[in-house]
Amino acid sequence: MIEANGLTKIYGAKTAVAGVSFTVRAGQVTGFLGPNGAGKSTTMRMIMGLDRPTSGSVTVNGLRYAQHKAPLREVGALLDAKAVHTSRSAYNHLLAMAATHGIPKARVHEVIGMTGLDAVARKKAGGFSLGMGQRLGIAAALLGDPQTLILDEPVNGLDPEGVVWVRNLVRYLAGQGRTVFLSSHLMSEMAQTADHLIVIGRGRVIADAPIRDIITGSGQSRVRVRTDQPDTLRQLLAARGASIEVPEPEMLEVTGLQAKTIAALALENQVLIYELTPLVASLEEAYMELTKDDVEYHSLSAAEAGN
Ligand SMILES: Nc1ncnc2c1ncn2[C@@H]1O[C@H](COP(=O)(O)OP(=O)(O)OP(=O)(O)O)[C@@H](O)[C@H]1O
């Protein structure tokens, strides 16, 4: 379990992480989602003791990273896949790591097999493609057989097969009861991988909930209703505080009321409805809605950029 309490990091005039508190639980994949510059990497570095919090604290299984006697066996992390600038082979790189942490050689062979690096294990790691580098970084994270895994953008640079591989691997590891904390800015990927999401924007936690709740609670959930009495139904719904759009003559899109409430209201007032469809927002829509005020770098449309 990872527990952050009022975690804050200030660099000069820049507040990268502004008092975040959250708990990452064992046995599930927790996604850490946020736009560029939101503070994901800074938070992860503080978990790993690579950055010192300006205030607040973060612990892994009750202790700060540095307090663990054998940290590599407790927490495995992939923070910067490009960090391996080595003329050593992947095998020797992992072997050196294992030797300095009292990890048996057999485990090196195991993680090479798990990450699909067998064919390139004797090649210089410095010459690896981004995807191979990611696999090596994940192999290094798994080396100590840790209970907790922290992976910063693990699918970055992977081909579609690699993306599926990471997804299956993290789900397998969480299934074994491990704590898996995974950052990404790819919502579609998170939707298929994570059970729980922590969303941050401008250094603050915007949402912390099961994926399902984030989708349905985004304020984007609407209900499509078709009726031959749109005006009557519209008035009835408006009187209940719903906001209504009319995209087609006999179609209403209703925000703010559940489908069941709309059906009951129609029945009570003898209004015929011939379609009632809850429109669930995609994770992408929910995410855009959540972070719309918290994006540090807004992109301009082509037209705006030309002005
Ligand atoms: N060493 C540093 N010195 C000054 N500012 C920093 C430093 N590291 C990060 N920042 C700033 O803190 C903010 C958060 O950065 P961070 O890298 O944690 O975000 P992120 O969510 O990981 O973003 P990305 O998805 O782009 O990697 C950014 O505005 C960044 O420019």
UniProtKB/TrEMBL annotation:
Residues 2-227 form the ABC transporter domain. SMART domains: AAA. CDD domains: ABC_BcrA_bacitracin_resist (cd03268). Pfam families: ABC_tran (PF00005). GO terms for molecular function: ATP binding. Keywords: ATP-binding, Nucleotide-binding, Transport. Belongs to the ABC transporter superfamily. PANTHER family: ABC TRANSPORTER, ATP-BINDING PROTEIN. This is ABC-2 type transport system ATP-binding protein.
